[in-house]
Specification:
The complex is a heterodimer.
Chain A: H1 2-21, H2 25-45, H3 49-74
Helix pairs in contact in A: 1-2, 2-3
Chain B: H1 6-27, H2 31-52, H3 75-106, H4 111-126
Helix pairs in contact in B: 1-2, 2-3
Classes of the chains: A mainly alpha, B mainly alpha.
């Protein structure tokens, strides 16, 4: 059990650092969405299934859609950006 | 050899997320990256709140109709986190809309450039000279034609 939790926590922290370091903005949004998704798995392990559902639907789904729409409006939404 | 507790790992993850998020807010120069860091810090705070009411031997706080009383995890922090997730998305949408307005007005998202142009605009509106440091001479940036235009 501890190995599952440790793996999820390490992946979450790596994704969080990736958000700050990667240059492409689409990749940063994807990494932030990955943080939310792994957090929802962790909530499900922590006996909070309702919070896990909400985090997966709102935190990982709706939030990424809002961020991606704002990126397109800002003109930064090109994938082939350095 | 002392085994690592699973609670220690979880608390380390939550505090690490908050630290990474706050570091991103403080150190980033790009406005969009600052919003992403805010989202990460908020996720860490949510995990910390859920962890505060958690015990490994307990079950999920759902009453299934049985009469056997079992230990449940604390449902109050979970309800608060449920609210906090939704409010976090609202705050994020508000910050993104303000970013869009700032981009529409100044065509840049670098916060130092934004701050420079905003203070220049404010000084131009108020008719006061632009507050500027003595070490950095005014370059070729577009200033309003006022008497505060050095050299």
């Amino acid at each position: 059990m501890i190995w599952v939790v440790a793996l999820i926590v390490i992946m979450m922290l790596v994704a969080a650092v990736t958000v700050l370091l990667v240059r492409n903005h689409i990749a940063a949004v994807a990494a932030a969405s990955l943080v939310s998704l792994l957090l929802s798995v962790l909530f499900a392990l922590l006996r909070a299934p309702d919070v896990a559902m909400t985090e997966a639907a709102v935190g990982a789904g709706l939030s990424s859609v809002i961020l991606a729409l704002a990126l397109r409006r800002l003109g930064l939404g090109r994938v082939k950006d350095a | 050899m002392m085994p690592i507790e699973v609670g220690t790992v979880l608390y380390a993850g939550a505090i690490g997320l908050v630290v990474v998020g706050i570091a991103g807010i403080v150190l980033s120069h790009h406005l969009f990256r600052i919003i992403l860091a805010l989202v990460i810090a908020e996720a860490g705070a949510n995990l910390l709140l859920v962890l505060s009411g958690f015990r490994w031997e307990a079950i999920a706080p759902i009453i299934t109709g049985g009469d056997a009383v079992q230990t449940m995890v604390d449902p109050v922090p979970q309800a608060m986190v449920l609210t906090s997730i939704v409010i976090g998305v609202g705050v994020q949408a508000l910050a993104l809309s303000l970013t869009l307005r700032a981009y529409g007005a100044y065509k840049t998202l670098d916060i130092r450039e934004l701050q420079r142009r905003m203070s220049a605009d404010l000084a131009g509106e108020a008719g006061t000279p632009l507050p500027q440091s003595l070490e950095e001479p005014v370059g070729g940036r577009p200033l309003p034609a006022a008497e505060g235009d050095g050299r």
